[in-house]
């Protein structure tokens, strides 16, 4: 990546490259990174769609592996110029144990950092989350906040705890000497709730609506705003950050960036209706149909049932005390830090993002009208 080697082809590694975000990062790199010579896609579960990418001009190497296994990570990282670490266990529903979440998100990230240090890879972009900041357990609103907005970040749930610790590890590793003696340069990107093609929870809401005869029932007041960002823009931000890390190492190294775009500020449910509405669903109620205390009770009941049934069956509904608290607490970002530090502008307008997502929901659910 030095001046004398402008034409040098680079090796990128994307961990979690077959996930919702990871697939978009992989495709974005292939479309928008002209210096890409080889793209390594590392995931526990490889997607069949990778095969079609292997016929293009860039060498695409699919690596089935587990980030919790240090030797597998080190083998994948060896010889890579840049690592984009998106692999993670995204679980706020109690499907996995706290230990497993920690193992994948924290130990997995530690393994990636150590592999960079041991093998001489200098540039690491980490997919963090808004959840490392909040919403906190006290339900304090974070209204149009930026990376410097003071906020009492208090974590109890295993997922935000693990993301916060992993992010800290990544930022703390900035400046460590890698093999060969040069410094590691790291940064962390913090998406808010990501939406777009491949968003499984959106599909779950659609199916839930169908089961209820095409109706969804408002549970959260429309005044509670929830930050959302389109997956294509999050992917683009990763690609740009990775590209600029060397030239702007002093500015970007050790920094965090919220992921943002022109998506409107709305409640979680009203935002989802931007896509589910055109697919035939209706949201009933200008105000929540159930009193909040009843939702709290139902969420607690779900948590109790999950605990009681665990020896027999996995019961993991969308509503639990944690998801209710997140959905019911305003958390929106307003920042231009990524633009100032590495020239990020959203690649997709809100209209494009909306259209693409609607087309995906329609195709994924066979709901085109
Ligand atoms: N979905 C969202 O709204 C947000 C996600 N994030 C972060 O973005 C990243 C990607 O999330 P999504 O794409 O939504 O999740 P996802 O579950 O679709 O993708 C995660 C990928 O990581 C892989 N993976 C999981 N455990 C692994 C392991 N032990 N070894 C190797 N690969 C493993 C999975 O197979 C999957 O392909 C995660 O780090 C998550 O914390 C951050 C903010 C919001
Ligand atoms: C599933 C929740 C909505 C259910 C509300 C109910 C039961 C009342 O209808 C989702 C509300 C907010 C979501 C989370 C948020 O977008 C932030 C996230 C960031 C991440 O890093 C991972 C995903 C998530 C925790 C996301 C998960 C679903 C919600 C809790």
Describe this protein's structure:
The protein has 369 residues and is α/β, with parallel strands linked by helices. The protein has a domain at 10-201 and 227-267 and 331-350: 3-Layer(aba) Sandwich (Rossmann fold), CATH 3.40.50.720. The protein is built from 13 helices and 13 strands. The chain has helices at 20-32, 50-53, 70-77, 98-119, 158-172, 200-211, 231-244, 249-252, 268-276, 292-309, 321-327, 337-342, 350-365; strands at 10-15, 36-43, 59-64, 82-85, 123-127, 142-145, 185-190, 193-195, 215-217, 228-230, 255-258, 282-284, 331-333. The strands form four sheets. A seven-stranded parallel sheet has the order 3-2-1-4-5-7-11, sandwiched between helices. The chain has a two-stranded parallel sheet with strand order 6-13. It is globular, with a radius of gyration of 21 Å. The N and C termini lie far apart (49 Å). Residues 1-5 have low confidence and may be disordered. 1,4-dihydronicotinamide adenine dinucleotide (NAI) is lined by residues 16, 18-22, 43-45, 66-68, 86-90, 104, 108, 127, 129, 163, 191, 193-194.
């Amino acid at each position: 990546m030095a001046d004398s080697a402008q034409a040098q082809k680079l090796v990128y590694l994307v961990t979690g490259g077959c996930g919702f975000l990871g697939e978009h990062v992989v495709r974005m790199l292939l479309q928008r990174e002209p210096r890409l010579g080889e793209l390594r896609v590392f995931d526990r579960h490889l997607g069949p769609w990778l095969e079609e990418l292997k016929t293009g001009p860039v060498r695409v190497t699919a690596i089935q592996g587990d980030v919790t296994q240090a030797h597998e990570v080190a083998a994948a990282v060896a010889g890579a110029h840049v690592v984009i670490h998106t692999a993670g266990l995204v679980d706020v529903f109690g499907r996995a144990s706290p230990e497993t979440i920690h193992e994948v998100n924290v130990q997995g990230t530690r393994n990636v950092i150590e592999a960079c240090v041991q093998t001489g890879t200098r540039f690491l972009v980490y997919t963090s989350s808004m959840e490392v900041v909040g919403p906190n357990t006290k339900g304090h609103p974070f209204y149009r906040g930026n990376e410097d907005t003071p906020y009492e970040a208090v974590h109890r749930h295993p997922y935000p705890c693990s993301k916060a610790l992993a992010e800290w590890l990544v930022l703390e590793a900035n400046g460590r000497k890698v093999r060969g003696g040069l410094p590691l340069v790291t940064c962390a990107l913090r998406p808010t709730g990501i939406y777009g093609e491949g968003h499984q929870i959106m599909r779950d809401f659609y199916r839930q609506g169908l089961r209820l005869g095409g109706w969804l029932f408002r549970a959260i007041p429309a005044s509670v705003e929830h930050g959302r960002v389109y997956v294509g823009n999050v992917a683009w931000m990763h690609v740009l950050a990775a590209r600029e890390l060397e030239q702007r190492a002093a500015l970007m190294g050790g920094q965090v960036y919220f992921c943002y775009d022109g998506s409107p500020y709305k409640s979680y449910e009203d935002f989802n209706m931007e896509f589910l509405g055109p697919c035939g669903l209706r949201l009933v109620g200008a105000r929540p149909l159930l009193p909040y205390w009843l939702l709290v009770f139902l969420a607690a009941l779900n948590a109790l049932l999950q605990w009681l049934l665990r020896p027999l069956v996995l019961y993991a509904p969308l509503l639990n005390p944690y998801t209710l608290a997140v959905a019911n607490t305003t958390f929106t970002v307003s920042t231009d830090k990524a633009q100032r530090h590495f020239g990020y502008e959203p690649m997709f307008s809100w209209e494009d993002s909306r259209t693409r997502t609607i087309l995906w929901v329609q195709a994924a659910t066979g709901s085109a009208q």
